[in-house]
Amino acid sequence: MSPRLHSQALAEALRRMASQPVATATFILVLGLALAIPLVAALLLRSVSAAVAHLDTDPVVNVYLVPDAADEDAKRVEQGLRASPEAAEVRFVSKAQALAELKGTTHLAEVLATLDRNPLPHAFTVRVRSAEPAKLAQIKAAWLQLPKVDQVVADFEWGQRLARWVQFGERVVYAAENVDMVVAPGSEGQLGILPRHAALFTLLAAGEMRVKQGATEQSLVVFGGFLEVANNRVLVLADSAERVEEIDVSRAEEARRRAQSRIVDRSVHWDVERAQLALQRSSVRLRIAGRQRGRRSDIPGRTEVSP
């Protein structure tokens, strides 16, 4: 194409953009956000990694006494905690110590100094021997019965979840060049992506993602996240993902049975929403593992491409 035609095309494009300023600005903003997502995700991952390095993700339970609990009450609670077979280590944090630490680690020192009395309770930090949810529920229920105990809180659960996310984020589950087709579970249906596909950014649902490369095909299980197509590349940032050969079928079957039992059993106060999510994930794993076993005889020369 001649320089003159290039100039004419550029002038026409600028004219169309100027005639629709709102639509043009919106398109540029959306495109800029889509292109920035991988960079933002990488920066966020680094920040979260640094934070998680300082988190205590071991099983720890905090026991808070009522505000008016006296020193003698704290001693009786400490005896009860130390007598528990589930307590591996017990550390007492007095209300005076907690206030001093709060003054030294926050910007509230001047405000706290104006208070007539210490508003913080005595507390115990207990390292427990098991992080199994059912066992934790029993521990919380038992320790709430101790005199003058106000709250029992497991503060390590969110830290474990965050640490697992960071650990996954630092792991590339699958990477390959010269792929012929990617089939992914979009939030509104299956997506088939061929080379030179138009730019795309969409949400993912739970399901199977297949990467076809010549005579081979790699199958993965993804649970939510995002898919971006740009510059003839497909980038997937999944909430959770694993190769189909990594699926532990017996473990998934046990997880499904346990989730079904908890959904049906109303005699115990189970987290039904969590059980339903576990049921969905285990069912997806089992369905895809079974489907993959049926494909193996039809796909010759299966190979894996390592990152």
Write the layout of secondary structure elements.
Elements: H1 3-19, H2 21-52, E1 60-65, H3 71-83, E2 87-93, H4 95-105, H5 109-113, E3 123-128, H6 133-143, E4 149-154, H7 157-169, E5 181-186, E6 189-193, E7 200-203, E8 207-213, E9 216-230, E10 233-243, H8 249-264, H9 272-295
Helix pairs in contact: 2-7, 8-9
Level-1 CATH class name of the largest domain: Mainly Beta
By secondary-structure content and strand pairing, the structural class works out as alpha+beta
Fourth-level CATH superfamily of the largest domain: F0F1 ATP synthase delta/epsilon subunit, N-terminal
How many helices? The count is 9
Report the count of strand segments.
Answer: 10
Order of SSEs: HHEHEHHEHEHEEEEEEHH
How much of the residues is beta strand, in percent? 15-25%
Uncertain runs: 51-55, 297-307
Here the CATH topology of the largest domain equals: ATP Synthase, domain 1
Based on the coordinates given, report the CATH architecture of the largest domain. Answer: Sandwich
Domain tally: 3
Q: How many angstroms separate the termini?
A: 40 Å
- Main β-sheet, in a few words? 6 strands, antiparallel
Rg of Cα set: 27 Å
Shape: elongated
Task: State mean pLDDT (0 to 100 scale).
Answer: 75
Approximate helicity band: 40-55%
